[in-house]
């Protein structure tokens, strides 16, 4: 189910447990923490290979597709009932337009799909409702396909991920699930509790760290950028593969907090050239057009590399991915339809559309 790239050496160094770091004072250029001795490794040729996780068992695959279909059922009902015994006329197109808008596909994506569908119906001389539905399926897959992109591992050591999102989007829980997925790809992970404002956020991340046997760099208060910097230095010293930096949840309209995100990004870059390598935004699939506004605002501020869309279970706003694809096509790495670890899976355009139109 997962297709990642990683770089593999002939010998893998042992990774010592990292101590809790004491973050430096709030400065633009925090002082590095004292580095633990690096485990020496012999020089080895670095090769690049495709690593594919063990495929989901047949029953696991069915379970995932059933959960996805159930999660999108409210959106699906609005779309699929239109084609039951329908005539191919203006009334059908009007009803389809309303259904797409209600699903939060957005005006631009909706108009594009309707124009393309009418053209396809005319050029291919489609006369049956099922044929029109199949044509819509093909158009939706074509629209969403550019969002389907695998996460690439092993490009840097460590690979630094900075993860943002508004409060309530499921950001911290998603970080815990993603850490577990990375471990299944033989990646060692270190978490940075960059939300220094809320004790609950640090505690939640600590719980996920304990559950996954992952070190968490945290402090009770202070500069989140310093915590992120310390985490990167700790990971470099211990040859950890991936650093995931949690950040405080905020609304894109809170300009002073958005500026702080930019500062965290800059300070991480001072700790490791070229980092952060992944800038991910976690969005709640239930928030529809508000989620699209978040994507635009955070992308403008941080230049996002990927999205994780959570809480698609039970939403009537599944069309939001079409709006994202048409107006701000940031890759969707993962989608989530539940609370379990296995309920977070890589985004697959064909599976998503089939669940939407089944």
Q: Please, could you describe this protein's structure?
A:
By secondary structure, this protein is an alpha/beta fold. The protein has two domains: 58-147, SRP54, nucleotide-binding domain (Four Helix Bundle (Hemerythrin (Met), subunit A), Up-down Bundle), CATH 1.20.120; 152-347, Rossmann fold (3-Layer(aba) Sandwich), CATH 3.40.50.300. It has helices at 58-71, 73-80, 90-102, 107-123, 129-144, 171-184, 199-212, 224-238, 255-271, 289-302, 320-327, 349-357, and strands spanning 3-8, 47-52, 159-164, 189-193, 215-217, 242-246, 278-284, 306-310, 332-336, 344-346. An eight-stranded mixed beta sheet has the order 5-4-6-3-7-8-9-10, with helices on both faces. It has a two-stranded antiparallel ribbon with strand order 1-2. Helix 4 crosses helix 5, helix 5 (129-144) runs antiparallel to helix 12 and helix 8 (224-238) runs parallel beside helix 9 (255-271). The longest helix is centred in the first third of the chain and has 17 residues, at 107-123. Part of the signal recognition particle protein translocation system, which is composed of SRP and FtsY. SRP is a ribonucleoprotein composed of Ffh and a 4.5S RNA molecule. Its main location: membrane. GTP binds at residues 165-172, 246-250, 310-313.
């Amino acid at each position: 189910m997962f297709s990642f790239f990683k770089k593999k050496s002939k010998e893998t160094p042992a990774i010592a447990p990292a101590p809790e770091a004491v973050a430096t004072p709030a400065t633009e250029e925090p002082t590095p923490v004292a580095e633990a001795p690096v485990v020496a490794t012999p020089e080895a040729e670095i090769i690049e290979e495709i690593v594919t996780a063990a495929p989901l068992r047949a029953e696991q695959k069915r379970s995932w597709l059933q959960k996805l279909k159930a999660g999108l059922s409210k959106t699906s009902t609005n779309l699929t009932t239109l084609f039951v015994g329908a005539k191919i006329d203006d009334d059908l197109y009007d009803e389809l337009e309303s259904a797409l808008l209600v699903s939060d596909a957005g005006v631009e994506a909706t108009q594009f799909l309707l124009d393309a569908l009418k053209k396809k119906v005319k050029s291919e001389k489609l006369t049956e409702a099922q044929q029109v539905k199949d044509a819509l399926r093909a158009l939706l897959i074509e629209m969403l396909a550019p969002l389907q992109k695998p996460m690439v591992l092993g490009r840097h050591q460590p690979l630094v991920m900075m993860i943002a999102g508004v409060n309530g989007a499921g950001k911290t829980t998603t970080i815990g699930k993603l850490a577990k997925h990375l471990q299944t790809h033989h990646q060692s992970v270190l978490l940075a509790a960059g939300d220094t404002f809320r004790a609950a956020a640090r505690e939640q991340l600590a719980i996920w760290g304990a559950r996954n046997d992952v070190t968490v760099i945290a402090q009770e208060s202070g500069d989140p950028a310093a915590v992120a910097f310390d985490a990167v230095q700790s990971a470099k010293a211990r040859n950890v593969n991936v650093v995931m930096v949690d950040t405080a949840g905020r609304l894109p309209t809170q300009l002073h907090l958005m500026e702080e995100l930019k500062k965290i990004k800059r300070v991480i870059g001072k700790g490791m050239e070229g980092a952060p390598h992944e800038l991910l935004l976690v969005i709640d699939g239930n928030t529809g057009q508000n989620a699209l506004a978040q994507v635009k605002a955070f992308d403008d501020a941080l230049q996002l590399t990927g999205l994780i869309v959570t809480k698609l279970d039970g939403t009537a706003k599944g069309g939001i991915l079409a709006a994202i694809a048409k107006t701000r096509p940031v890759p969707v790495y993962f989608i989530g339809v539940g609370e379990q670890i296995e309920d977070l899976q890589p985004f697959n355009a064909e599976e998503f559309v089939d669940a939407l139109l089944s």
